[in-house]
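hey team, just a heads up i'm posting the complex here instead of the shared drive bc the drive is being weird again. everything in one block, sequence lines first with there labels, then the predicted structure for the whole assembly after. its three chains so it's a bit long, scroll down
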Amino acid sequence: MPEGPELHLASVYVNKMCKGVVFSGPVTKSEVSKSPDVPFTCEAYLITAVSRGKEVKLTLTPLKSDGSNQRAKRAQTDQPMDIVFRFGMSGYFTFTTEDELPKHAHLRFHSKENPSRVLSFVDTRRFGSWEPNGTWHSDRGPCIMFEYEKFRDNVVTRLSDRAFDRPICEVLLNQKYFNGIGNYLRAEILFRLKIPPFVSARTALEGHESEDLNENEKPVKTEITARKASHTVKKKAMKEETGDLLRLCHTVPLEVVNLGSGKGYDPTKQDYSDFEAWLQCYYVDGMNSIRDHNGRTMWFTGEPGPMAPKESKSPKAKKRAKTASDNDYTDDNKKMAKGNTKKTLSETKPSHHQVTGSNRKQLEKDKVKSGNGSPAGSQRRSQRLTRQRNLTK
DNA sequence: CGTCCACGTCTAC
DNA sequence: TAGACCTGGACGG
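-- predicted structure starts here --
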């Protein structure tokens, strides 16, 4: 599910499905979950949701009781409770009958109906979490979708922070500034502007102090400032055509929201084809991809940019489960045996960018493929998606 | 069967 | 800046 748009769509889903539904009793948790118990029990309560960036907050609101049953009341919560959820890689909400409860439904809110229905937080990989009586995480910035002015201000006023020394594609994942952007959004946003992913963030974001194009034009005195000015003008002209980067951090996620409920990123879903059609770059056949400095796959087209990871930067070595008698290879040989494109690519076809993608077919023909640790490989992906599409028809 | 990959944080050398 | 945290689907042998 989970970048900003999916989190928001989840909140929309909860509000839609739970409107008018009365919940009752305790909030139950799966045995295996490490997230905290939710100390809330109430004879009758409502559930609403709101999202901010990559978090969703549920509010449990007790309904007024008539006070006739003092004993039952004592054990109950009569104050509203907020629970803040983070979805990790696989979290989502679903509202089902008890019978239809999915595997990995780790937190459950039971309706008062008979038979009861259940709002559940499902999270296959358990990277997600919740926090009873929680608040928006203090280290996360304003929501890119629904706090646009604050988001923008938070970036432009802190451009001098060291955080912006890094490549733009990596900074876009920094939730302190870009709360809601994730791996597919960064690719789509940079692709729209054809900004090389590994240019410095500060450079890419310069001149974003205002959205008004053509204000603050100043008289030029020297040649140097004249050149600077003309550079600025050019930048502004470019922005006029394409929209600036910060604005796209807002509008591109909203496009996904506007695909509608249940249409975000979820390859396992029936409806995945709409989202897939919306993608222009991420995992798209013909695009390039390389791993960034954090080992995340960056999808792009054109030049990677000057701050692209160097060859020496080892792609993530496959760690294998350790076995007692594992002496066939040295560590290095293991890595090679496991394969890892960056090395293989560079040895086969020297290039200072470890670019995969359009080169990939050729390289595969050249037998680079075995041991190819290339991130994803667009060809493979499209095959996989084709299969899924066929399966869902 | 085994390997690689995935929409994201976290904390510990 | 590596791992750690997890499950499961696609693919290769």
